[in-house]
Amino acid sequence: MKKKTIKLIAAIVLSVIAVGVLTSGIGSYVGVRTAKAAYYDNSKEKVKTCELDGIKTELTYVRTKNNANTFFGKPKDKYGAVDTYQDESGDIEYRFYYNTDEICGYINHSLTGTEPLDSAEKARDIADNYVEKVLGYSLNEYRRDPDEPENDYSEWTGPEYKYHYSKYIDGYKTDDEIFVSVDEYGNVEWFTARNRGRYDSEKFNAERISSCREKLVKEIDKAVGQRDGTWTVNDEYLAADDDGKICYFIKAQCSYGTGSDRYATGQTFSRKIK
User: Fold this and answer.
1) SS3 per-residue string spanning 231-264
2) What Å distances lie between residue 121 and 124, 126, 133, 153, 162, CA to CA?
3) In CA terms, which of 19, 55, 270, 274 is 20 to 30 Å from 240?
4) Is 268 inside a domain boundary?
């Protein structure tokens, strides 16, 4: 009987973790780790006022989501989780770095328009202006990725133009980045800002970074080679891991198999910079 009870309790706990949503606060889940799960935190400020692009909006708390594999309610720092609030209509969501008033995301489900944009250049100018004038980022520090496709189509939002800006420090790309989406009518429908200012106080050592990259490349060669595969670099950058340690990341396009059985897959590799 005791074993059955324990198994039942374990099954309930695991099912709740799988859903990843808390409705009664975080106290019931002390000691449980979860990867990027959303939960409701009863200790949060339930109402706050946010000003964006000169417009003040009263918001209501909706949920918190972990950005890393950490305890509910105990991120390593403000970047470890995001608090989501919404306006009275429920059509607009605002996201803030954990326990701060620093906005790091916005999405508007109610935008409309009558005159579609006639060029990607106009959408690009709108995104650049929004990043610089509304969000206050310097385009000298945050570079727009020129290789990413601008035009996209989503069954949810329809045609859109998406842009990705990354901050470079001492010449190194980081995951301090911004994603902006402009809809077909020139409205900024959403943006996400990750890790803003996270590495501003870091002192990057070029020799250590170069050495780390060389070792990581050898590790990838070995790992992919053991499966008779080949690989190429899709992207590389500096970022913090779940423990806050700065690592060198390489996103690789790996190919495995031969002939008609050959396939390609994206893989991400990383190594701590010591």
Assistant:
1) EEEEEEEEEECCCCCEEEEEEEEEEECCHHHCEE
2) 5, 9, 18, 17, 12
3) 19
4) yes
Residue with tokens 């950490």: 70
Say yes or no: 115 and 164 in one domain.
Answer: yes
Which are the contacts of 23, defined by CB distance < 8 A and separation ≥ 6? 40
Of the candidates 76, 136, 87, 82, the one whose C-alpha atom is nearest the C-alpha of residue 104 is 82
CA distance 244 to 157: 35
Short-list 236, 173, 172, CA closest to 207: 172
Domain co-membership, 178 together with 222: no
What letter represents residue 33's amino acid?
Answer: R
pTM above 0.85, yes or no: no
What single letter denotes the amino acid at residue 25? G
Q: Which stretches of the chain are DSSP H helices? A: 2-19, 120-129, 206-225
| Position 61 in a domain | yes
Task: Mark which of 142, 168, 194 sits at the end of a domain.
Answer: 194
**Residue at 3 is within a domain:** no
pLDDT digits (tens, 9 = 90+) for 225-266: 999 999 999 999 999 998 889 999 999 999 999 888 999 999
Q: Is there a contact between 192 and 181 (Cβ–Cβ < 8 Å)?
A: no
Using the structure block, give the residue that is written with the tokens 């209509």.
89
Whether 103 is covered by a domain: the verdict is yes
Task: Supply the DSSP symbol for 186.
Answer: S
Range of the domain at 229: 206-272
Q: Which of 239, 23, 198 is nearest to 98 (CA)?
A: 198
